[in-house]
Here is the input.
Amino acid sequence: YHIELASPGLKKQDFKISIDHPLLSITVEQQAETAEETKKYNKREFNYSSFVRTFNLPELADHNRIDAVYEDGVLKVDVAKKEESKTLSRQIEIK
Here is the structure.
């Protein structure tokens, strides 16, 4: 399973990924401070943005094998699938 989240301008430290079976949550908290000084005044601005995206993972998702990479403004999350158990057929002996 593959999830891509476009989020340009963020750093990988801004992301937090958590799992609470069967939900995978991606949380972003970003704080930015800009200071501008001129001869007549000082100006400081604080920008704070946050969001949460939650995904319901399928039953076959392997919660122990999740990888995430943030590059070029895109967070990519890969969730491996569990190996399906193969149904074994056999003869039952009657006693």
In short: Residues 2-81 form a domain with the Immunoglobulin-like fold (CATH 2.60.40.790). The chain has one domain: 2-81. The longest strand covers residues 23-37. Strands lie at 2-6, 15-20, 23-37, 42-56, 61-71, 74-81.
